[in-house]
Amino acid sequence: MDGKNYDTLENFEKIYGIKKFNQILKEFNFVRFVRNPIDRLISGYMHLCYYGVNNKNHYCFECDKNLTCFVTVLEKRLWQILNNEITLYNKDNEITYSYHFYPQTWHCEYYKLHNMFTYIKYNSSDKDSFSNSIAKLLKNFNISNNTLNFIYKKIYNVKTNHETLSKNETTTYKNILYNNSLLLQKVCSIYYYDFIKFDFEFPKECINSTNFLEIN
């Protein structure tokens, strides 16, 4: 398209009109990548809170790298947003928290547009499955083998600056979460519809919890 991002349908229609939008719906195929909610939370937490974007910018909800505090404040904040009881952060901070920590069903106007998308699950520890899903999709669109091979190489060889899977600290914080059943249940509750709508498996600690079942 024109290289711009549009956060809502209304913004797109305001600029280009509904006629062009309907034309795009007919001509384009839409793909969305989704991630296991817990993996996404821990990855974002390690990148933005524990390590920080730089020495000055740590997105921790003022919790000083305390995961329990972070999840508790996140849950409270999401409820406040739902109830229109909150003043949003400045634009850059709000986008950062939203992109990395708010439920994935809150993005891309999911409840309006979910039937338009093909969903591909991203798992940083299983790139074979991820690349196979992409290849299967692209082959349906007659993408050349040269292009597919280029994509494969990028998937396997390119790492983002904040890739955290192999770091010991990431394992430590994931263990902190899984060893705290109440905290894990809170995370499952926050991302309940991400698990359901994108068909991710709940941790058994959540499935077996009476408290979690009562909440949801």
Question: Overview of this structure, please?
Answer:
The protein is mainly alpha-helical and 216 residues long. The chain folds into two domains: 29-122 and 167-215, no CATH class; 125-162, no CATH class. Helices cover 59% and strands 6% of the residues. The chain contains 13 helices and two strands, in the order H-H-E-H-H-H-H-E-H-H-H-H-H-H-H. The protein has helices at 9-16, 18-27, 37-51, 67-82, 91-101, 110-113, 127-139, 145-157, 168-178, 181-190, 192-197, 204-207, 210-215; strands spanning 30-35, 117-122. The chain has a two-stranded parallel ribbon. Helix 1 (9-16) packs across helix 2 and helix 4 packs parallel to helix 10 (181-190). It is globular, with a radius of gyration of 19 Å. The mean pLDDT is 85.
How are the SSEs placed, and which strands pair?
Elements: H1 9-16, H2 18-27, E1 30-35, H3 37-51, H4 67-82, H5 91-101, H6 110-113, E2 117-122, H7 127-139, H8 145-157, H9 168-178, H10 181-190, H11 192-197, H12 204-207, H13 210-215
Parallel strand pairs: 1-2
Helix pairs in contact: 1-2, 4-10, 7-8
Describe the biggest sheet?
Answer: 2 strands, parallel
Structural class: mainly alpha
Q: Determine the number of helices (DSSP H or I, runs of at least 4 residues).
A: 13
Give the ordered list of helices and strands.
HHEHHHHEHHHHHHH
- Stretches with pLDDT under 50, minimum 5 residues: none
**Which percent range describes the beta-strand content?**
5-15%
Tertiary shape: globular
GO cellular component, one term: membrane
GO molecular function: chondroitin 4-sulfotransferase activity
InterPro entries: Chst-1-like (IPR007669), Sulfotransferase (IPR005331)
Pfam families: Sulfotransfer_2
